[in-house]
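Lab notebook, entry 322. We have the chain sequence and a SMILES string for magnesium ion, and the next step in the workflow is to get a structural model of the bound complex before anyone spends time on docking refinements. Request logged below.

Task: model protein plus magnesium ion, output structure tokens.
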Amino acid sequence: MPANLTPMYLKAEEGFRQAKTVAEKIAALEEMSATIPKHKGTEKMRADIRRRLAKLREAGEKAKGRSGIDAFYVEKHGAGQFVLIGTPNCGKSALVGALTKAHVTVAPYPFSTHGPVPGMMNYEDVQVQLVDMPPVTAEGFVPGMIGAVRNADGLIICIDLAADVLQEMDICLGLLDARGLVPPGRPAPEGGAAKRMLIVGTKLDVPGAAENFQALRELYRDVPMLATSAEKGDHLGEIPRMCFRMLDVVRIYSKEPGKPPDKDRPFVLPRGSTVLDLAAAIHKDMATSLKRARIWGANTYEGAPAPRDHVLSDRDIVELHV
Ligand SMILES: Nc1nc2c(ncn2[C@@H]2O[C@H](COP(=O)(O)OP(=O)(O)OP(=O)(O)O)[C@@H](O)[C@H]2O)c(=O)[nH]1
Ligand SMILES: [Mg+2]
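Result returned:
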């Protein structure tokens, strides 16, 4: 059976041939694994990629430990992780600095951020993680960065409203498209995937920025978008809400029988999760020992008994009996 390899895969393979360090080779193989068409004709090749990846990871780990291999890996915290993407100097770090307590480098010259810088953004009673990143250019991503982009729950594409906004969009969306990542609702190429994307126009305080934003909005009506100024604070408060909505998760408060609910730290679960999913999230043994549950919430009776497959709603309070 022919393999029907896509240009995206062939590019990743070329990246592997060019790779010099173990980290670069691993990043290229991961890219090959993500983009290779998944059908019978590529079964052997996929097994070969997996084998080579395992071998390299083992060699790399022996040599210097995980942090030395994947310098872009950021452990996820909170309700979800959004990685920032944008051209040099577009205002990514200023945005992360304005929304979180992260120690970012904001500078009037390009390429001032060299590695990932995570920070937590508050939204009501949960947090959403932002990860500042080095810039992207028409030439591509910094080696190794694409893994973090794929791993993120969503992307914030920063567009400098004081610059050529259409060109900036072309660069960012073009790079992602070439790696198979497209906004939800658009057709993904073979081996590709939909990725949540929020377009954030930056530097709204600069003259002409509002007009540039309007032009952008008219061209990209199907992608969530807003204009902000990190310097003046305009519309920054909408970002946490928009990110949280895009994550499509629910917040559930657990409650022990006879006690008030723990309202401080909700469990965050994908929308569509059930009583049983909640039990499993609390403790793996709880899912097997769960006998019954009661729910207080907007869509149920106060304290009504709920079956294990009951689908939970945002802000439900659940009492689990084991
Ligand atoms: N007027 C104005 N300037 C801004 C705003 N946000 C950022 N800047 C300026 O734009 C420049 C670049 O900001 P950074 O946040 O460092 O940009 P970056 O995208 O992180 O840059 P790299 O890390 O090099 O990719 C700095 O001089 C900032 O002061 C804003 O909202 N308004
Ligand atoms: Mg920066």
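Notes for the group: The CA atoms of residues 267 and 281 lie 8 Å apart. Worth checking against the assay data. The chain has a mean pLDDT of 90.
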